[in-house]
Amino acid sequence: MGDILFLAHRIPYPPDRGDKIRGFHLLRHLSARARVHLLAFADVEGDLAHDEALSHHSASRTVLWRSGTQARAAARALLTRRPVSLAAFDDRRMRDAVSAALSRNPIDTIYVFSSQMAQYLPADIRAKLVMDFVDMDSAKFAAYADAARGPMRWMLRREARLLQRFEGAVARRADASLFVSRDEAALFRARTGADRVCVIENGIDTDHYDPAARFAPVDRDGPLIVFTGQMDYRPNAEGVAWFAEAILPRIRHAHPGARFAIVGRNPGDAVRALAKRPGVLVTGEVPDVRGWLAAASVVVAPLRLARGIQNKVLEGMAMARPVVASVAAAQGIDHGGTIAVGESEAALAEAAASLLADPARAAELGAAARRQVQARYAWPARLADLDAILGIAPNAPRAAA
């Protein structure tokens, strides 16, 4: 097998948020089978300093700093009649880097991680093209539009329409289009008519997310309900606001000492303001979420809008904690009944309150959840089908550098 060119919208290291976790495990899997050339963007300054760590998983690396505001990207998108998602990642330096990588290396497979990076594909692709959409982003913007009003609704509908057109065009060029769940794959087929659509689910490192592993503990003073996630991501921010404002008061009516910890980097003003509410704690970024998960009486995932498989749910399960999730957050996860799922505010509050009232049942549910994750979501098993898609033998040795 020849070399692989791996294009990523965000540097896949460190694996500390959803897209970077999937990206890192994909990169590690591919680099064990072929020489991989990584081209990626960074939007956190510290992520420009991971060349040594990435050298173990790539033959060459180019990481470009991406800056610019969403407003500027929106203006460019309107002028060029493109989706904002593409305008935000349009960079001449990346085009030059892709061209150089293709000319210098025997690339026979291009792996594109996220639709934003597909704009860098050359017109005359001679290599095999694997397009990892992960989720159907255009469907996410369509859902945003349904809840918006005025000019923002128009803008979001425009984004959904143009992005879906682009996604369909890319899928027609791809040898395989990958999605993180069967539901996302089925939705994409239905809306675009695409074929050659495959499912490569997310996994989890159950050795790292293990209640018996070594990590700094977090003191728990009374019942603790924990949410973890990237807090500048709109569905997360909206989900914790919904929980803090509409669900937590119901739980505290039965358990007055219950606290809700919102754990994750980059909380905006609206999320930080939730800390003014009784029983709400906003931590911001923490060195290791495992301590908070281990301390949780209940882990919650109250997302109203969610696509694909939620890592936050898998992490709570792997840490043997009882998980309460919305229908949207649980969708796509083969949890085997080991998590509590609810649709309404009342149902989610009742599920969490009942687990707080019965620690033995909560522990039993958490232990069953960990067993389910170990059996179903180990990364090697989740990525096994990728070898057949790429046309390489499982566990094939990597070519010499």
Quick rundown:
Residues 138-207 form the Glycosyltransferase subfamily 4-like N-terminal domain. This protein is α/β, with parallel strands linked by helices. It has helices at 18-31, 51-54, 70-80, 84-87, 92-104, 137-147, 150-173, 182-192, 234-254, 269-273, 289-295, 311-318, 327-330, 345-357, 359-376, 379-390; strands at 3-8, 36-42, 60-65, 107-113, 128-134, 176-179, 197-199, 224-228, 259-263, 280-284, 298-301, 323-326, 340-342.
Structural write-up:
This protein is an alpha/beta fold. It folds into 2 domains: about 5-205 and about 380-390, Glycogen Phosphorylase B (Rossmann fold), CATH 3.40.50; about 225-375, Glycogen Phosphorylase B (Rossmann fold). It has helices at about 20-30, 50-55, 70-80, 85, 90-105, 135-145, 150-175, 180-190, 235-255, 270-275, 290-295, 310-320, 325-330, 345-355, 360-375, 380-390; strands at about 5-10, 35-40, 60-65, 105-115, 130-135, 175-180, 195-200, 225-230, 260-265, 280-285, 300, 325, 340. Helix 9 (about 235-255) links the parallel strand 8 and strand 9. The chain is globular and about 65 Å long. The mean pLDDT is about 95.
